[in-house]
Design goal:
This protein has 303 residues and is of the alpha+beta class. Helix content is 48%, strand content 16%. This is Transcriptional regulator.
């Protein structure tokens, strides 16, 4: 797999114009123009850069994941360093919007260097892009306009701090708009919850617990064609509980049924539920129920 350590090497590979700054590039479509098009296809690649792009597809259709989206209004896509990128030439399109790429070292020494890692949307898949309303799009574009002004001006000792401050504002607005999207797309979110519960139930019913142990969030997310972070964030917004909390609650419910069988020891119940170490099962059960598995049995007089 190809990996690009510098922004200039990454842009050169894509066939895009070189940047005005060694660690920062800003491309913006203006007037009747379009964004510069990168190479038509690429095998899996990685790089050490962050990317924030507003995509407005003017010509052609685009499928993200297993879902077809309408990006006429625009969608923000966030890519973190070392995320695997791959695309083919099956779709031809023209696009407006903007694309900001910056090396992770560009943020060194700033508070944003730490804060940016807390924005979970950098871990979302591309089919979980942020869909902007016209008003939101205008707000984001005004920030990018100011970033571009600083980027193109003769740079001085204040330029980097100003650009980082503007990037910080852009990400804070994006975080606000994602919160709005989770609320506005309740039907999709509820459907995702139902799918997750179905996958979880299927895993438990198939008897894979004893063989494979606790279900992998990554595997479930992959089967649902979403990223782990997006799945967990969506469930959190809908139910107040994360992905792992849902799995733990499902395990505890299963445990209650098995504990009703008095001929099984606590250790046997733990092994049946995929726990390699029974004490871990007991701690989880007590954490969720407030009593230990053995106390649960005593409560229902099932010794």
């Amino acid at each position: 797999m190809l990996h690009f350590k510098t922004l200039s090497a990454y842009l050169d590979y894509l066939g895009l114009p070189q940047a005005e700054h060694p660690m920062l590039s800003v491309f913006q479509a203006k007037g009747e123009g379009y964004l510069p098009c990168p190479r038509e296809s690429s095998p899996p690649i990685t790089n050490d850069c962050y990317s924030i792009s507003l995509k407005k597809f003017v010509k052609g259709e685009l499928n993200y994941g297993r879902t077809k989206y309408d990006f006429t209004n625009g969608a923000l896509v966030f890519i973190a360093p070392r995320q695997v990128l791959q695309w083919d030439n099956s779709i031809v399109f023209e696009q407006k919007g903007f694309s900001i790429n910056f090396h992770e070292d560009f943020l060194k020494g700033s508070s944003l260097a730490h804060q940016i890692k807390k924005y979970s949307f950098f871990s979302y898949s591309i089919n979980e892009a942020l869909h902007l309303s016209p008003k939101e799009e205008k707000q984001i574009e005004s920030i990018v306009e100011n970033i571009e002004l600083e980027y193109l001006n003769n740079q001085d000792i204040f330029s980097k701090d100003i650009i980082i401050s503007l990037l910080d504002s852009l990400l804070k607005y994006a975080n606000r708009y994602y919160e709005r999207q989770f609320i506005n797309r309740k039907e999709i979110s509820s459907s995702l919850l139902e799918q997750f519960q179905e996958h979880l139930a299927s895993y438990f019913e198939s008897g894979q617990l004893r063989e494979k142990g606790l279900p992998s969030i990554r595997e479930i997310a992959d089967e649902m064609s979403v990223s782990q972070r997006y799945l967990s964030d969506t469930l959190k917004k809908v139910t107040g509980k994360s992905t792992i909390e849902h799995i733990h609650l499902h395990i505890v419910d299963e445990a209650k049924n098995i504990l009703l069988q008095p001929n099984k020891t606590i250790a046997e119940v733990a092994y049946e539920l995929g726990f390699e170490y029974p004490p871990y099962f007991s701690r989880l059960f007590k954490n969720k129920e407030g009593i230990s598995p053995s106390e649960y049995r005593k409560k229902y007089k099932l010794n």
